[in-house]
Design goal:
With 460 residues, the protein is α/β, with parallel strands linked by helices. It contains 14 helices and 18 strands.
Length: 460
């Protein structure tokens, strides 16, 4: 049975999301009771990790079966040197050829201890997905904690724990037990916490392996819908492809790998220090066709028709395919036990996304493909953007997606049934009610993922 509360939201955000999932079209189609049930299921499943940990295999470097065998050996080695139980089965996905799935075991019966370490929400989410506790995420710990102490780890739901506290009585959620790798004095000795593992998890509430430094060139920790995006884009060898909001580069590298590293992948991101991360990932995965630039993609279209520079801005119709994995409110991320965002912040993304779509359409060649994706669950950032794009750009038409393993688009944005069937919405709430009875097979991972949305357009 679920032991976490539903995701904690500000009342204004809760009411906004409820209006989305109980919109008149959905209520008419499902009935008010079923629509309400789906909304409540969404709030519950967002606070829990998906049923599977998904890794993308570098099949451009080695066959999937060989990577699977190497990963199995590495995980066995990790488990034999720690108190964590043996590795779980590694499963290939039946429809995504470069994905390996590891079933997540949880929630498990773990007894809480008196000695408590408190971590921030971001760290807590990582722990629920298999990570150890790294020191920057620790906000509180026992007064006399020393290396080797066994402690219970809790996540601060509201971000109210003061760094360096010895105890915390606010809203928190139990994540499991671990062994301290540092003394308290080492963790809180300066304003800038030291790097490294502060607590090594030995009895996690949700058991899945930590992938820190595990076959870094052969397996890449990535949510299943994010891998599906690359396949839906359908890159081909020799093409010129633009990834508009690329950091940290997971999708960029996937595109280059699917092209066999033949062609050109331009990666843009508006945050300067993230460009190094894209280049590091490309180098680690032996991909040489990626060129990354610090640039705001809303300004990526050149106003000079005679410009022929290698980097941005670019001439109109310069790319065969464009991926716009747009900045978004991120309300589909899992596990997310609390969100402190205001409604104003959540609603601020739609105008930015439309500016980016304007640039994407202008940069795309006639006959080219544009894929738009987000990791959120709102209509405003997903189906409504599709409806707006089709009205604004008569040259765009929706295209079928392959693979299509999520649900169709959601009612409420005025799209036709045919148009909704061409969209792909990963809706974890649809599978949550069956999670307890469903066997942990690859088919169970098809929809029990993060919340995600994909639309594929052709420029006629």
């Amino acid at each position: 049975m679920p032991i976490f509360p539903k995701i904690s939201l500000k009342p204004e955000v809760y009411n906004y999301l409820k209006s989305v999932f109980l919109n008149s079209e959905l209520v008419e189609a499902l009935g008010p009771q079923k629509a309400e049930q789906r909304f409540q299921s969404l709030l519950t499943c967002l606070s829990h990790p998906p049923l599977h940990t998904c890794v993308r295999a570098s099949t451009h470097l080695s066959p999937l079966e060989e990577i699977r065998d190497q990963l199995c050996k590495e995980l066995e080695k990790m488990c034999s040197s720690s108190a964590v139980e043996g590795p779980c089965q590694i499963l290939p996905h039946p429809r995504v050829p470069d994905v390996l799935l590891l079933p997540v075991d949880g929630p498990r019966p773990v007894e809480q201890l008196c000695s408590e370490v408190v971590v921030d929400a971001q760290c807590g989410s990582a722990v629920l997905r298999g990570a150890h506790v790294f020191t920057p995420g620790i906000t509180a710990g026992p007064k006399f904690m020393k290396c080797g102490d066994v402690v219970s780890v809790f996540s601060d739901l509201e971000g109210k724990c003061t760094r360096g506290a010895t105890n915390f009585e606010g809203m928190k959620v139990f994540l499991g037990n671990g062994v301290a790798e540092m003394n308290r004095s080492s963790i809180f000795c300066t304003d800038e916490p030291p790097r490294g593992i502060g607590v090594r998890m030995v009895e996690p509430l949700y058991k899945s392996p930590s992938f820190d430094e595990v076959l870094p060139n052969l397996v890449f920790l990535q949510n299943l819908p994010s891998v599906v995006v690359g396949h839906v884009l359908g890159p081909r060898s020799g093409e010129r492809i633009l990834d508009m909001c690329a950091a940290p580069g997971g999708k960029t590298c996937h595109i280059a790998a699917l092209m066999g590293d033949r062609g050109e992948v331009i990666a843009l991101d508006r945050i300067r220090n993230k460009i190094d991360r894209i280049n590091q990932n490309a180098q680690m995965l032996s991909l040489s066709c990626i060129k990354a630039y610090w640039f705001n993609s809303t300004q990526a279209v050149s106003r000079d028709p005679d410009q022929e520079t290698e980097g941005p801005p670019f001439l109109p119709e310069s790319f065969d395919r464009v991926l716009l994995d747009a900045p978004c409110s991120g309300l589909g991320q899992r596990p997310s036990m609390a969100s402190t965002w205001s409604l104003k912040e959540i609603c601020s993304y739609q105008p930015l996304q439309r500016k980016l779509i304007h640039s994407a359409v202008r940069l795309l060649k006639r006959g080219g493909v544009l894929v738009y994706s987000t990791c959120t669950v709102t209509l405003a950032e997903n189906e409504e953007q599709v409806s707006w794009a089709l009205d604004t750009f008569p040259c765009l038409t929706l295209q079928p997606q392959e693979p299509h393993i999520g649900a169709e688009g959601m009612l409420g944005a005025g799209l036709s049934p045919e148009q909704l069937r061409l969209l792909q919405r990963f809706s974890p709430e649809l599978s949550w009610d069956q999670a307890e009875s469903a066997p942990l097979l690859p088919c169970g991972a098809a929809r029990d993922t993060i919340g995600f949305f994909i639309a594929k357009f052709l420029k006629n």
